Amino acid sequence: MTQPVQLRVVSVTAETDAAKSFRLRAPESLSYKPGQFLTIGIPSDRGMVARCYSMSSAPHEDDVTITVKRTPQGFASNWLCDNVTVGDTLTALPPSGNFVPPAQDADLLLFAAGSGITPVMSIAKYVLMQTDRRVALFYANRDSAAVIFAEQLRAMSEDHPERLHIVHWLEELQSLPRTADLQRFASVYPHYFAYTCGPEPFMNAVTDALHSLGFPSDRFKREVFLSLSGNPFEIDEVVSGPGANLARVKGSCNGASFAFDDWPSDVPLLQYLLSKGVDAPFSCRNGECGACCFQLIDGTVEMECNDVLDSYELAEGYRLACQAKPASKSITITYA
Ligand code: FES
């Protein structure tokens, strides 16, 4: 399912003075992985703008919950916190994102700061409720009043005393966490998979700490908050520039085959396939989320931007449809 979905707000909870959780009733067809985000449409003077919000719920829960923290200049987060009430409907693109727990049976080392706890909470709930893995969480905040999910985390600790270890770090008492502090915490869990979400300086300090302890990069994920420049809800018409060459593309998506022969060399594959009525997956349309990933079987494409795929994935033929333009006459692809 890649079309926008309508989500009815069934409850609004103030988590702190600045953060609210919105519990949303989703269609049954909407599925997601712990740690993923929703792209929500927000009305504005300029029409619809899109913002990504991580889910704090886990897939085994009945409803989907996003948790939103106000920021001083945050038009969308302030609009949600000020305007959205029970009974309202939000428009969202299907869940997306790669900040998800590994498939293998690994224990998790989680680092969160401020509202970075949101996807981390989703992951922690899933791992504790649906697996027998262990979780260690380092959670940094300015002061105790800013701790989102304080009560839920306390209850989770009581329910899973052998499997969940939480350290709350309060800046007003301990100053900002330094690399050495994070290193000391992480050194107890050298074989865990590490995840971090929060402000960039915090994630950089976590990265430094893990590198100094020799954590390999395939056992460490950082969540990057997306700032979308375009509007992924709008499907642009395909208008090819003068002199654009046309390529053939064939493949399959969601079990349906397609074959077209007029893909302009200056148009991204995603835009082209959507204009042809193919139900191709996407979310950010900015090369930042990975939702549009496909595999190249034959031919060549060039990508303008790629903040998602690593060298291993590129070598396996994975590419981003929102960024890929044809660089050969004939291209064959598939969506996993
Ligand atoms: Fe997000 Fe292409 S839609 S990377």
From TrEMBL:
Keywords assigned: 2Fe-2S, FAD, Flavoprotein, Iron, Iron-sulfur, Metal-binding, Oxidoreductase
Signal sequence residues: none
A Pfam short name: FAD_binding_6
Residue span(s) of domain FAD-binding FR-type: 2-102
SUPFAM superfamilies attached to this UniProt entry: 2Fe-2S ferredoxin-like, Ferredoxin reductase-like, C-terminal NADP-linked domain, Riboflavin synthase domain-like
Domain 2Fe-2S ferredoxin-type: 247-336
GO molecular function, one term: 2 iron, 2 sulfur cluster binding
Highest taxon, organism lineage: Bacteria
Names of required cofactors: FAD
The protein's name in its UniProt record: 3-ketosteroid-9-alpha-hydroxylase reductase subunit
UniProt organism field: Mycolicibacterium confluentis
